[in-house]
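Whiteboard transcription, Tuesday session. T.W. wrote the structure tokens on the left side:
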């Protein structure tokens, strides 16, 4: 029997790092993640991809995509493997490879897929996977967001790449985007099979859930923890409570109205536009279980940044309201001298996901970084 799903929200305020919208009550059908790509998404693209320039068919001599599955800790992971244009199973050539971790609330068919495809165009084998409990991957309850799971998901991508005979296991790198960037940094702290680590618009999920966005709600820490404890208690009776920035069953007009309430070029305004309108995907709900706060608030990627001794590249938009997270984590990466922050002029956080000019700059920088270090 399907568990009852409830979103508890406050109207149009930022709390715990998410904009919570004024939608309360039972939204079992609307708020739960789709574990299969919807027919609508498949009509747009046979692989469910929603980014510009996405692969629509596999053509010899061009980058190809393979939907794949594997397990991490006994849970099924759904992923897309991107193969370079010259990929040939019969040749002796091996390739450097890169894992790509998607943002919080996102899916592999969005920005993670775009960057994986662009890396494959440059000659890397790349894999973009849905986090467990999210997207098309397995795991119950849906949309659980534990840092330990997300970190293990990245090591799981490394595991998978290591099984491929065409991958040079000594040349595996990792790229993490937004929340996936914070978790990728955490994975690289201990998984030394990752030979070079890069982030794009890094988001320190634990710090934001604990202190509020831009550390603006430190006074609310105990209230959030109490809310998480209450949500966990409700899970015992089968009721799952969610946090999120995309209200269920909203029309495009309602989403645009919410955007109009927020300043331009800010994370949550652009996030509504990206996830709710321009790059909408049924597996990207922008939500996570409220109970996840119990794990999230005890996590902070900055705590062990000194363990990273691999080459490190952190890319961010010059105008991003999340830039403080990249700068603060980078400053604590004392274990490597091979490190750089690269700012994309004029870009905000979400705009690095899709604006062609900004994507091109990020990809060019990533190519130079991985070519040098893998």
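and on the right, the sequence the group agreed on:
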């Amino acid at each position: 029997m399907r568990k009852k799903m409830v979103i508890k929200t406050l109207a149009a305020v930022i709390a715990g790092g998410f904009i919570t919208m004024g939608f309360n009550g039972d939204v079992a059908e609307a708020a739960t993640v789709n574990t299969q790509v919807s027919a609508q998404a498949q009509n747009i693209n046979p692989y469910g991809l929603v980014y510009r320039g996405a692969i629509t068919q596999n053509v010899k001599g061009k980058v190809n995509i393979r939907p794949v599955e594997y397990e991490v800790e006994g849970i099924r992971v759904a992923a897309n493997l991107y193969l370079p244009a010259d990929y040939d199973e019969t040749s002796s050539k091996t390739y450097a490879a890169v894992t790509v971790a998607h943002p919080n609330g996102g899916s592999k068919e969005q920005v993670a897929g775009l960057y994986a495809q662009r890396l494959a165009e440059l000659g890397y084998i790349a894999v973009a996977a849905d986090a467990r409990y999210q997207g098309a991957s397995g795991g119950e309850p849906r949309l659980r967001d534990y840092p330990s799971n997300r970190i293990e998901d990245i090591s799981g991508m490394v595991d998978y790449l290591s099984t491929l005979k065409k991958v040079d296991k000594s040349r595996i790198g990792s790229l993490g985007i937004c929340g996936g960037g914070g978790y990728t940094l955490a994975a690289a702290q201990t998984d030394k099979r990752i030979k070079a680590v890069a982030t794009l618009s890094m988001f320190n999920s634990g710090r934001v859930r604990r202190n509020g966005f831009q550390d603006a709600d430190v006074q609310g820490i105990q209230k959030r923890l109490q809310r998480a404890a209450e949500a966990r208690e409700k899970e015992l009776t089968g009721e799952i409570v969610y946090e999120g920035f995309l209200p269920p069953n909203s029309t495009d007009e309602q989403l645009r109205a919410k955007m109009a309430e927020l300043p331009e070029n800010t994370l949550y305004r652009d996030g509504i536009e990206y996830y709710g309108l321009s790059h909408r995907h049924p597996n990207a709900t922008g939500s996570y279980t409220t109970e996840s706060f119990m794990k999230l608030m005890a996590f902070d990627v900055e705590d062990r940044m000194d363990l990273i001794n691999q080459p490190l590249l952190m890319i961010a938009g010059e105008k991003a309201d999340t830039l403080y997270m990249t700068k603060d984590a980078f400053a604590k990466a004392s274990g490597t001298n091979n490190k750089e922050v690269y700012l994309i002029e004029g870009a905000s956080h979400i705009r690095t996901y899709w604006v062609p000019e900004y994507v091109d700059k990020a990809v060019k920088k990533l190519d130079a970084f991985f070519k040098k270090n893998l």
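Someone added at the bottom: Residues 149 and 181 are 14 Å apart (CA to CA).
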